[in-house]
Each structure stands twice: as structure tokens, then as C-alpha cells.
Design brief:
Structural class: mainly beta
Strand content: over 45%
Shape: globular
Number of strands: 34
Length: about 625
């Protein structure tokens, strides 16, 4: 642990250097994810982190997930290759927040506030979330089930899509080439004319992979159009589609041949917003669906598979909410959510194309209503209380309360305290598919208790926050031996105590520093969750030059638990330098894992050593 202590002390030391005064915008940040609607982040009891498009694109990562893993304390994302996460066996891209993982549906991903997850297995599809179309990301660390329902048990990641901020048209083109035959390319256009605005983007990427039979290829597109109907009403329609082919070679201990996944995911959504000042709200309708063809491969000395695993799923929903300020300092939000979750899975003969059996073909319904009340006292204290009543066609009715209080103190400091409940309904897979299936499963439960402090210093050139939490979960679904056979049962528990801290310092007009750290003590070790994760990054930007240097330290990342417990500890170094020979052109080169460390975030799937990418950005 000595090297990690040195890493933390260095991060703290650089924040204590006195910066020279300079002008900076001190406007308070507004967010939309901690509430339905827009609110001052300092007034919300929930712990929320935001990452702008500039911060996302500064890393030149085609996916948003590596950047989230670096910049959000308490959040970690697994990887298996230089590009591509895949699905099914051998997949990575699992998002863990405080020990709760997206791979089993305990972390929800939203796009513009609309839930995104695979209907049968209940998890997000990580390869669908590219940087090119995202304006900013807001992450709620801790349960958000009161507002968002089942899959918000451990936290929420909300991707807010881009739109033109001003009149005119803007086009961005990105291309990059690098290690292992990797190519990335994207094009995006944003347009605003009067009351109309649109954005459209397309992306293509591929790699041979750093291991044989680890190739990946993906193409995706996204479009959004919007219209402002006067001062009080606006509407937006958006759609996106992602298609990829992912190969996987199995673990190094048990290699596979012919293992391949072909996946298509798509979504469409309509939102109608109103804002009259004293009241505002939204009606949203969304539909996301997918088609999956999976060959799980075979051992070198075994016969090839004769069938493909096939599945199709759909998630259709409506969300309606309206907020109103009935008196001074008050906001009351009433909301209604409905979801239809449908999934079908079967095997298909490779030789004949015929179905060989149906594993599942079913539909579930979920309907919920909630009320959230915020009240400001003495202009410095904000109290919030809310409750959700959620009825699921399989598991029945659940009551989800949440309470919080925040206080604005002198010298731009604030203190917050929250108590919240999270829950997760069992997935179709856990209820009905394969031998462990158990249609008597109950929802998982979680309570989170949290206290946080944040402050802006030196005319907001420095801001920092620190929070401590206690997370207690029970009724977690695990597979255990019952009467001599594997069966999914509500038997798991978790008790995680953690500390998270982050700080940003604008040293001068062209140099900034960011750092974050998270510690978690787990009563029972959990997969994809390091005991300690820290990041220290420097960002330099002038009219022609841009550079980024980042170091991420990870200690006791659990890649296996139970009797075969295994963990990794490592330090990863990355760097990027970019130059603008023309105002509309930028060339760059970047390197990841520059220390060439050997490491795994998935057991048996070693990550590549040092990799290099070179790219060209055009903007006009």
C-alpha cells in the first residue's frame, strides 16, 4: 500500500500550491438527473458528479466509459481489449458504483432521462454509449430508485445528448489509427435555425485485438430534432442504432474457437416539455429494443456448436412528471412511470436455420407513481423527502422512500445528508431461464446512508468534495445449491463503508488539475470493485496546444471472489498531446498503459500493454 499512499499525498500536495488570480465563471452548475427537471447541484442532497463534453472529448476515447472510470470516484468499469466490450460470456463493460454492478442491473443507464437496458438480462449494453453524441454525463452515486425505479438501485448514469447551443451549423470529424489495427472514425453535425434544432452523428470503429480471435467491429448512428413552440413548450424526437460484431477467444486458461456475438441495439424517444417558471414538466415516450445472435464457441478439442443462442427484447415506457412551486422556496414534483418489459430467447440450428427450442417468451409490466417535495428554509437549508409506490406484475408492490437535507454555509461551502432506499426486480433470466431459474424470487433491497461536504475556494478556482457512506443490501440474488441442484435464491448481503473525494483546480488560464479518490471496505468482497481507486490528471490548453497526463491507481480490484478469491493492484499512466496547425484542424497522439503493466479487470482476459493512437480532428 506504500505506493498508493504516496499517490494520494502527491494528489493532495498539488492542490495546496497557491494559484495566481485570474478571471473565471462562477455560475453554479445545474443538473437534471438528481431531480426530474433542472436544479442547482449545491441544493440537492444526492451525490452527483458531472462530466462535460469537453472533458469527455479531451481524452479522445470513442466510448464514454473509460473516462467515467477515471473521473468519477467510486465508479469502475471493466475492460477486456483496446476496443469493444461485447456481451454474454467474456464480456466486459460492467459499471460498478460502490460495489453495485450494472452487469446484473443494479446500475441504470439513461439517455436523456430514458432507461436503457436489455430486457431479458436486465443490464446495459456498454458498446452503445459513444462520446460523439453526448453533451454531458451526470452520475448519481447511490440509490436513485425513488425517481427511476428498479435498476437505479446502486446509482444512475445519465447521458445527455448534444444539440446546437446557438444559431448556425457546426460539423466535427474525427479519425484515428493505432495499435493492433485499430481504427476510429466519426462525423457529427449540429444545426439551429430559429425555433428548430437538430443533431446527427455517425461512428465506425474496428480492431484486430491484442489476442488472436479478439476482433471487434461496430457501426452506429444517432439523430435528434427539436422544435420550440413559443416560450413555454418544446418537443424533441431522437433515435439511435448500434450494430457490432464481437469475437472473443475465451480465457487464457480455457481458449475458445468460433466464439462470436452479433448484436443490434436501437432506441427511439419523444419528449414534450413545458416550462412556465412556477411549474414545469415533461411527457416522455421511449422504446428500445435489440436482436442478439451468439455463438458461445467451443474448446479446441471439442466439436463446434450446432446452434446459435438467439434473443430479442424490447423495453417500452412512458414517464410523466410535473413540478410546481406552490409557495416561496417550495418545489413539489408528481410523477408517473410505466414500463413494458418483453423478451424472447431460443436456440437456432446453424445448418438449417430452424428453431430448436424456446427458453423464454414473456412480458412483464411495471407501473409506479411518486411524489418528491423540496422546501428551502432561511435561504440556506433545503430539505427533501420523496416516496415511490412501484407495482410490478411479477413481484408485487414496493414502497421506496428517500430523505435528504443540505445547507449552504459561508465561503461557498455546503453540507448534505441523505438516507435512501434502492431496489431491483429480478430479471427474466433469473426468473425463467436455465437450471438456476426461480420464479419465486423477490426484489433485492438496499439502504444507503450518506454525509457529504463540498466547497469552492479562491473565487471558484478550486472546488472539492468529500463524502462518507454506509451501504447495506440484502435479499441479493445469488446462485446456490438447493436440494442438490443450482437455484437462484434471495440470500446475498452486502455491507460497504466508503469514503469518496474529488477536487478540481484551475491553476491558471491554460492549466488545470483534477483528482479523485475512493476507498471502500466491503464486509464481503464484490466483483469489479477495487478497495481503492485514485486518479490524478493535468490538462493543458492554449490556442494551439492541448495536452493531458493522467495516472490511475487501483488496489485490490477483485476479479474473483469466494474460495478462488483473486485481486489486482496496479498503476496506469496515460498521455495525450495535440496541436492545431489551423483553427479548423487538430492532430494528436495518445498512449495508454504507458508503463506497459500486465493486468486484468476480467479474470483470464489480460489487457494489452502500452498502446498508441494517432488522430485527426476537423471542425467547421
Amino acid at each position: 500500500m506504500k505506493r498508493y499512499t504516496i499517490f494520494i499525498l502527491l494528489s493532495c500536495a498539488v492542490l495546496n500550491i497557491t494559484a495566481q488570480p485570474f478571471a473565471i465563471d462562477t455560475l453554479t452548475e445545474a443538473v437534471v438527473t438528481g431531480v426530474r427537471g433542472q436544479a442547482n447541484i449545491e441544493r440537492l442532497p444526492a451525490t452527483i458528479s458531472t462530466i462535460s463534453h469537453d472533458a469527455l472529448s479531451a481524452k479522445e476515447q470513442i466510448s464514454i466509459l473509460p473516462t467515467l472510470s477515471e473521473l468519477i470516484p467510486g465508479l469502475f468499469v471493466t475492460s477486456r481489449s483496446i476496443l469493444g466490450y461485447g456481451v454474454s460470456d467474456g464480456a466486459a463493460g460492467g459499471i460498478s458504483i460502490r460495489g453495485m454492478q450494472s452487469g446484473n442491473g443494479r446500475v441504470m443507464v439513461l439517455i436523456d432521462g430514458h432507461p436503457q437496458y436489455q430486457g431479458i438480462f436486465g443490464h446495459s449494453i456498454s458498446d452503445a454509449y459513444q462520446t460523439v453524441g453526448v453533451e454531458r454525463v451526470e452520475v448519481v452515486r447511490g440509490p436513485a430508485s425513488m425517481l427511476y425505479g428498479s435498476n437505479g438501485m446502486g446509482g444512475v448514469v445519465n447521458l445527455i445528448t448534444r444539440k446546437a447551443p446557438a444559431k448556425g451549423s457546426k460539423t466535427d470529424i474525427h479519425t484515428a489509427w493505432g495499435s493492433y489495427g485499430t481504427f476510429e472514425g466519426s462525423i457529427a453535425n449540429r444545426l439551429r435555425s430559429g425555433s428548430f434544432h437538430s443533431s446527427v452523428s455517425g461512428q465506425y470503429s474496428r480492431t484486430d485485438g491484442h489476442r488472436p480471435r479478439l476482433g471487434f467491429e461496430q457501426i452506429s448512428g444517432q439523430g435528434k430534432i427539436g422544435y420550440d413552440f413559443g416560450a413555454h413548450w418544446k418537443a424533441e424526437v431522437m433515435a439511435d442504432v448500434t450494430s457490432f460484431i464481437a469475437h472473443y477467444p475465451g480465457t487464457v486458461q480455457a481458449p475458445l474457437l468460433e466464439a462470436r456475438q452479433k448484436v443490434m441495439r436501437a432506441q427511439a424517444a419523444l419528449s414534450v416539455d413545458n416550462d412556465y417558471g412556477f411549474t414545469s414538466g415533461r411527457i416522455g415516450i421511449y422504446h428500445n429494443w435489440g436482436d442478439h445472435k451468439i455463438n458461445d464457441g467451443h474448446a479446441p478439442d471439442a466439436a463446434p456448436k450446432t446452434t446459435l443462442f438467439r434473443s430479442q427484447d424490447a423495453l417500452t415506457g412512458i414517464n410523466i412528471y410535473q413540478s410546481a412551486a406552490l409557495w416561496a422556496g417550495n418545489t413539489i414534483t408528481l410523477g408517473f412511470d410505466y414500463q413494458r418489459i418483453q423478451g424472447e430467447a431460443w436456440n437456432r440450428s446453424i445448418s438449417t436455420g430452424q428453431r430448436t427450442g424456446t427458453s423464454i417468451d414473456t412480458t412483464q409490466h411495471d407501473v409506479a407513481g411518486y411524489i418528491d417535495v423540496r422546501q428551502q428554509f432561511l435561504r440556506i437549508i433545503t430539505a427533501e423527502a420523496g416516496v415511490r409506490v412501484d407495482h410490478h406484475s411479477q413481484t408485487g408492490t414496493a414502497f421506496i422512500p428517500q430523505f435528504g437535507i443540505s445547507a449552504s454555509l459561508p465561503h461557498r461551502a455546503s453540507i448534505k445528508a441523505t438516507i435512501g432506499k434502492g431496489f431491483r426486480n429480478p430479471t427474466l433470466r433469473e426468473l425463467y431461464m436455465w437450471k438456476p431459474a426461480n420464479d419465486q424470487l423477490e426484489p433485492e433491497r438496499l439502504w444507503n446512508y450518506e454525509l457529504s461536504w463540498s466547497q469552492h475556494l479562491q473565487n471558484a478556482r478550486i472546488n472539492y468534495s468529500i463524502n462518507v457512506y454506509l451501504l447495506r443490501a440484502d435479499n441479493l440474488i445469488q446462485t446456490a445449491m438447493v436440494d442438490g441442484a443450482p437455484r437462484n435464491v434471495n440470500t446475498g448481503e452486502a455491507r460497504n463503508i466508503g469514503v469518496e473525494a474529488q477536487a478540481n483546480w484551475q491553476i491558471c488560464s491554460f492549466l488545470a488539475l483534477t483528482t479523485n479518490h475512493s476507498f471502500v471496505h466491503m464486509k464481503t468482497p464484490m466483483l469489479d470493485t477495487p478497495r481503492y481507486k485514485g486518479y490524478l490528471g493535468f490538462n493543458l490548453k492554449t490556442s494551439q496546444w492541448r495536452a493531458n497526463l493522467g495516472a490511475q491507481a487501483i488496489s485490490h480490484l477483485y476479479t474473483a471472489v469466494g474460495n478462488a478469491e483473486a485481486h489486482q493492484s496496479l498503476v496506469l499512466l496515460s498521455a495525450l498531446i495535440a496541436f492545431k496547425p489551423l483553427p479548423q484542424m487538430e492532430i494528436y497522439t495518445k498512449g495508454d498503459n504507458l508503463l506497459a503493466r500486465r493486468y486484468e479487470t476480467r479474470m483470464g482476459y489480460p489487457m494489452p500493454r502500452a498502446t498508441v493512437m494517432c488522430g485527426l480532428n476537423l471542425s467547421f
